[in-house]
Amino acid sequence: MAGSGASEDQKFCLREVLDTFKLCLSQNKEVYLEHYVAGWRGLVKFLSSLGSVFGFISKDAVNKIQILVGHLDGENGSQYVTVQSMVKYELENELVDLSKRGSHPESGCRTLLRLHRALRWLELFLERLRTSAEDSKTPVMCAEAYNESLAQHHPWVVRKAAGMAFPWLPGRTAFFEVMNVGTPEQVVAMLGEALPLISEVYQITEDLYAQHNLLDLP
Ligand SMILES: CCCCCCCC/C=C\CCCCCCCC(=O)N[C@@H](COP(=O)(O)O)[C@H](O)/C=C/CCCCCCCCCCCCC
């Protein structure tokens, strides 16, 4: 079974990811980068438990997480507390490549944008899982969510590789078990709790990026 062999503290738990996304939003609806990154770490833990066929995806996500952690832990870390402060700081200091890749290939803004687009995939995929019937196929749900979101930003070769990985996803029952929540009904209930939070974080970031014309960063 996917996820077997992992020790308790390495095991993915949907509740933990949900708690992390809850911590993401400040009272005035700013997105804390530290918790956003922690949410992604939890999701990557899940992806890693699915086997090496998803390794190229985890590797890219881990690389982006590390870039953001590097900013958070760097000498200007105080500017990276929220996504809002990061955008302000990087734009004011011309630290973002706006039209073509140049001297700032690892800006926080372009790196977060890649994870932000993936968050939309996650939202679409989880909504499909939540409303799925017992015999629904996870690869189909995953591919549909991917085609509606991330795929539009990926070149042919990445889309092809992703399409080859999806059939290796565990079935719905195994998938729900790896979430470590309880019965399928409890998983569905928790997804119902998680989705509005993920959507809110997504929408706040989307609006911020749109407001600053950052949605197509190279
Ligand atoms: C709540 C539990 C259930 C769901 C758990 C899902 C766990 C998912 C964890 C991670 C998701 C993948 C994050 C992928 C980030 C991709 C960022 C990206 O778009 N990178 C590309 C562009 O980067 P630059 O070149 O511009 O720097 C890069 O080219 C991508 C390379 C790797 C391929 C990405 C394919 C993404 C497929 C997404 C579906 C993941 C399927 C997982 C199924 C559980």
TrEMBL record:
User: Keyword set for this entry?
Assistant: Cell membrane, Cytoplasm, Endosome, Golgi apparatus, Lipid transport, Lipid-binding, Membrane, Nucleus, Transport
Q: Which Pfam families match?
A: GLTP
Q: Where in the cell is it found?
A: Cell membrane; Cytoplasm, Cytosol; Endosome membrane; Golgi apparatus, trans-Golgi network membrane
Its Gene Ontology molecular function terms?
ceramide 1-phosphate binding; ceramide 1-phosphate transfer activity
Please report the stretch or stretches of sequence annotated as the Glycolipid transfer protein domain.
32-180
Question: Which SUPFAM superfamilies does this chain map to?
Answer: Glycolipid transfer protein, GLTP (SSF110004)
Keyword Iron-sulfur on entry: no
The protein's annotated catalytic reaction(s) are: N-(9Z-octadecenoyl)-sphing-4-enine-1-phosphate(in) = N-(9Z-octadecenoyl)-sphing-4-enine-1-phosphate(out); N-(hexadecanoyl)-sphing-4-enine-1-phosphate(in) = N-(hexadecanoyl)-sphing-4-enine-1-phosphate(out)
Record protein name field: Ceramide-1-phosphate transfer protein
Its source organism is Parambassis ranga
